[in-house]
From TrEMBL:
Gene3D superfamilies: Cytochrome P450. One of its GO terms (molecular function) is heme binding. This is Cytochrome P450. Its cofactor is heme. Heme binds at residue 471. PANTHER family: CYTOCHROME P450, P450, PUTATIVE (EUROFUNG)-RELATED. The keyword Iron applies. InterPro entries: Cyt_P450 (IPR001128), Cyt_P450_E_grp-I (IPR002401), Cyt_P450_sf (IPR036396), Cytochrome_P450_monoxygenase (IPR050121). Keywords: Heme, Iron, Membrane, Metal-binding, Monooxygenase, Oxidoreductase, Transmembrane, Transmembrane helix. It comes from Endocarpon pusillum. It comes from the Eukaryota.
Amino acid sequence: MFSSPIWSSLLFGAVLPVCVGLVHLSVIWTRKRRFYKNLPCPPHSFLFGHLKVLGEVMQTLPKNVHPQVAMAIVREKYNLPHVFYMDLWPIATSLLMIQDPDIAAQITQTKNHPKHTLNKEFLRNMTGEQSIVTSEGAEWRKLRSMLGPAFSSNHLSTLVPDITDHVLKFRGQLQELVKSEKIVRMQDLACNLTIDVISQIVLGRSFNSQTTFSSITYDFRKSISWAGTSMDIISRNKSRLPIWWYCRRLDRELTAEIQERHAGRATTNTTTASKAVVDLVFQAYQDEKLGLSTSKEAQKPDVDPEFMLLAVNNIKTLLLGGHDTTATTIAYTYYLLSQHPDILSAIRSEHSTAFSPSIKTTASLLESGQASKLLSNSNLPFTTAVIKEVLRLFPTGSTIRMSSDPATETLSYQSQSLPLTNHALWISHYGIAHREDLFPDPAAFDPYRFMPGKEVPRDAWRPFEKGPRNCVGMELAMLEIKAVLALTLREFDFESVYGRETDGERGLREAPERHGGRAYQMIAFAPKPAGGMPMRVRLRAGSEKEMEKEG
């Protein structure tokens, strides 16, 4: 039998750490919750912070709605200022929501705050740590300088014939859908197009995803399908293993692509300077690490792990960013134009005037040396305005930054000093673009607000972000979307078919109409149209004759 003193000692030894832990937790809990006293935020709970507030809003929305939509509704519901806090600890990272263009400009343009560590944590498997998206400081500047020539205006103008060729294949896919009368997820169909375009720019050859099965495209899709929100600890951890698995497959496949690319160039003794991203990375690495040596070692980057890591990381990054968001914009453009026949008629008229009434002639012009001028903003002002308005209503991204000095740095807003300690600074492009004081009647699809001569509030339109870390591929995205619209809008009519046919008998919950209705933005790595934008494609009246002429 154990004596009573021994049992007492054991009990004390077990209980003491628990008590100490509880006291420590209560101190942390109290400190974190008291932080928000007298700061702009929704009604705050000592127990739940703002988790309950966010949960109540989310209960009124589809489960997979993008958080940027939910945050805009939180601000509306509680009539908050355009910079406000969201205490989401301990479930997710707490936020300073920024829906003010002047404050956004301070953070990304004036001071250029570093990206939050959430970006690197979330993208570590998908892009790697040595990528243009996750790097900072001198490393980022080197990568931006290295990759920039692949996305320069002059270089992109030489690629328009290739882009046109891919768009014509996309047009062929649409023609097949007309014949079959099948419902298609436009997001997926557009993704096959855009990944073929970006692979041409990045690897010097297309994956041909529109006509054949591509294992690289498949693995990209699977990794993206597992990616939830970077701020939700639960979904982030749940997705780690499948994302890791598919990204390791991608690493092997892209490594083989790079090795094959350089083996081919070495065999043919190619000396012409290439601006494919993989060649730019190799050249920059060779210049820095190996000088201008022509030694056997210098000609075999495939055996150098450091080069391969740098190349694979940035190729994955550009493939990911270069196809996903552009496809989303194409899908939403078809959707919005199908809902507004007057605007559709106006853009079709502009294309017939700027190019030719004939689609075949339009394609020939885009494959000529005039392509850059023909696709310019000045030649297609209304098309440019339409794309800008689509990106305002349904921005495909945002940026999350952090303080350079989180212990002491503050932000001044409406005569109040706002501390930045332990908060992600989420600049919500969606929140800014849906402000009534910046864009009157913000839920309306009104491209005329972006026509030449119209004044757009400074720094309020920022779908590609602004400042040094703006999107390196923004000009490519605009060129690609313009080419798609010019070669498809006058031939096809698009009809969204949300409803029982695609949702099932029970249907699916909608977002408020001012936030997209049934076509709300869902979270799937980046904002995407709910359900992949199910559509039917039909031939426009009169376009049969055009097709007969081409035949």
